[in-house]
Amino acid sequence: MSLYTSLISSLVFPLHERIKNHSSVAVRKEMELSQWWDTRHLEAFQFAKLQRLLTHVEAHVPYYRNLFTSIGFKASHLRSLADLARLPLLDKPKIRANTEALKSANGRDLARFNTGGSSGEPLIFYIGKERISHDVAAKWRATRWWDVDIGDPEVVIWGSPIELGAQDSLRALRDKLLRTCLLPAFEMSAQKLDRFLQEIRAIRPKMLFGYPSALSHIARHAEACGCRMDDLGIRVAFVTSERLYDEQRQQISKTFGCSVANGYGGRDAGFIAHECPQGGMHITAEDIIVEIVDQQGIPLPCGEAGEIIVTHLATGDFPFIRYRTGDIGVLDSKPCICGRGLPLIKKIQGRSSDFLVAQDGTVMHGLALIYILRELPHISNFKIVQESLDLTRVWVVGEAKLCPKTIARIERGFKGRLGQAVNIAIEEVAEIPLEKSGKFRYVVSKVATV
Prior knowledge:
This protein is of the alpha/beta class. The chain has helices at residues 3-19, 24-34, 39-60, 62-71, 92-97, 129-144, 161-164, 169-178, 190-203, 212-225, 246-256, 367-374, 404-418, and strands at 111-114, 124-127, 154-158, 180-184, 207-210, 236-239, 259-266, 270-275, 281-283, 288-293, 306-312, 323-332, 344-351, 355-357, 363-365, 379-386, 391-398, 423-428, 443-445.
């Protein structure tokens, strides 16, 4: 660690957090001890925090006070973590319909947040200082797993208007002190990509942070231009907010000469899990209880795929209890070889809308169709949109106009998986627009799968 980084991480950033009345420094230090606890110790810690949270919301949050009364639930009757399953699931429509009732009566200084709305209508919700402190601490801890720290030079490729629209003079000064450079991921023209490469080379960051689609796109552009980027001393690329595909990981790692660390979470659900250098996707178990449930909301055992449900234990001011993420995943029963006791997510298969439904009702991941297009030469980008069981659109960006043979091959492959009667509408376009949030989604299904 350089002297400057040490100064920032041990003095300047802690002072910044203290001024904002955040407890993130103390929480991070506690987390760096608790990450080595065994399963029994972690679960006992989770149970105590869950009991406190449920006792609090029963007394101070109108939505949960009414809910507990209606279902005959009392926080004092909680006997184990499994009792959490007695509560109904929370989803975005319920939050939209009960936003004010979900605020704690004794909540103070709540900050208004919203999701980017990349998969539908944005969600408005509120976060208190405890939640912010714990999320900052969890991210900070995971960053340090990779031998980088706050204060090391960082380039952030991001598309959220929340961050990009908030770059006032104070934030600009903070970013300068922390040596963080924010580049907008909304526009990826060749001219912008050239400028991104120039800035990254000039900054020589220790870490990159951004959407996997954005970082892999920049990496492919660098490779196509013959611009070497693996000599800058980049140690790790943190990716989040989208599914990370194997080819994206390989492209980013090869081009930038660094490891790729996958992160999983959201503005709403919190900092759920992060990959360690040994490859384990560790859940932030001190703050997050993760359940995998079937279509009826019943918890599934480790090894079975289902929807990821999150309870954030530091959200007393605006609770997220048994919150539906819309993502599909699998829990792992085996410990990580790194020695941390934090439980693992074995697979994050993507959002429910990343899954497609064949005409006969078969549910499949979008990769089933993605690989058909990946195998074809001269296709630089694409997007698959399942409009209905009878119609799937395919937008294709090609290096040249697709020949009839290639079009027939795409149709044949898609029909073989979705059904022979499905209409496959292939449209050649110059570029594919990003989502409003700046993210890119290879597959979007408008047919419900969960």
